[in-house]
Amino acid sequence: MAYFKYKGIIFPHQFYSVETLSYLENDFQLLDDDIVNLTYPKSGTHWMSEILSLIQSQGDPSWVQNVPLTERAPCIEYADHLQIALKNPSPRLLTTHLPLQLFPKSFLHSKAKVVYTLRNPRDAMCSNYHFIKGFKELKGPGTVEVFMESFLSGEVGYGSWFDHVKGWVEMKERANIFFNTYEELLQDLRGSVQKICHFLGKELNSQQIESVVENASFHKMKDNKMSNFSLTSENIFDHTKATLMRKGISGDWKNLLTVAQSEHFDRVYWENMRGVNMTFPWE
Ligand code: A3P
Q: For ligand 1, atom 23, which residue shows the shortest CA distance?
């Protein structure tokens, strides 16, 4: 069986274990100067890791050009990346897709700063539909219809998009969490970088901000083998079947869903999001 469920959420055995997930939830200590890049999968995780790395290095691109993203901002729920995170010097950049209920409990008493990036779930789903085809040992997406049903019912890795968002939105009054969206990054990367710097208490001058914006652009990242996923082993990922840096736009879901599928998505979206006290650019 390639998958297991942890507290009701699907994870593939290939990358995750009950031991690691349980350790993260109960024992992993967030440090007050940690910066956590938090997303639901396919919402701009790598992009935010690159932005945060560049902010960390005051706009100097040599770190992102020479050190793999997985070492700069390790994803803590992968056992081997967790080991990197535990060894990295402070202030650490950490990446995770964990929903609130599986997130380290140490967060409750920590000043660690969380940057939560959301993306139109239609685009996150569409991006994942294409990306998942590259993983050699994971179940392929199947038809769009089947994949959409799995996505809408939360029968996908990391569970339901709706539960993820609703869980984290509950934390929005905390001073140490910052919400932003993929769509805002696309629309005004410079403005977003300035807001993130402000949240992190980092003062970058305009030249440094300019360098963050330039080096985190889609084309720079696509050409940077430290950041574009191309270092992922051929044993795990077939780079001829899928790519991380695919289109980098919003609205590509329109090329995937039929009108009837998109209407069904809308219905399920609003059934789930009724009463959520936050608005998003795609609404
Ligand atoms: P698409 O598949 O729609 O192109 P994640 O990092 O969470 O896995 O998300 C991957 C998505 O982010 C992909 O979307 C990818 O193209 C997009 N992305 C990555 N870096 C980007 C950048 N610098 N600018 C715009 N989109 C970017």
A: 218
**Residue-wise pLDDT tens digits, 135-170:** 999 999 999 999 999 999 999 999 999 999 999 999
Residue with token string 């795990």: 236
Delimit the domains of the chain by residue range.
Answer: 3-273
- Taking the whole predicted model, whether its pTM rises above 0.85 is answered as yes
Look at residue 136 in the predicted model and tell me its pLDDT: 96
**Chain-centroid distance, C-alpha 260:** 28
* Cis peptide bond upstream of 91, omega within 30: yes
CB 241 within 8 A of CB 133: yes
| Residue pLDDT, tens place only, 94-126 | 999 999 999 999 999 999 999 999 999 999 999
Place of tokens 């803590």: 76
Mean of the per-residue pLDDT values for the chain? 97
The one-letter amino acid code at 96 reads: T
Cα 154 from Cα 97, distance rounded (Å): 14
Q: Can you tell me the distance from the alpha carbon of 61 to that of 56, in angstroms, rounded to the nearest whole number?
A: 10
For residue 1, pLDDT beyond 70: no
Residues labelled as active-site residues: 97
Which residue is closest in CA terms to ligand 1's atom 25? 248
How much distance in Å is there from the Cα of 197 to the middle of ligand 1? 21
pLDDT at 20 over 80: yes
Burial per residue of 244-268, b for 16 or more beta-carbon CB atoms within 10 angstroms, e otherwise? bbeebebebbeebbeeebeebbeeb
Indicate if ligand 1 lies below 6 Å from the C-beta of 215: no
Ligand 1 contact via 184 beta carbon (within 6 Å): no
CATH 3.10.20.580 fits 3-273, yes or no: no
Strands 35-39 vs 93-96: parallel, antiparallel or unpaired: parallel
**Nearest ligand 1 atom, CA 186:** 25
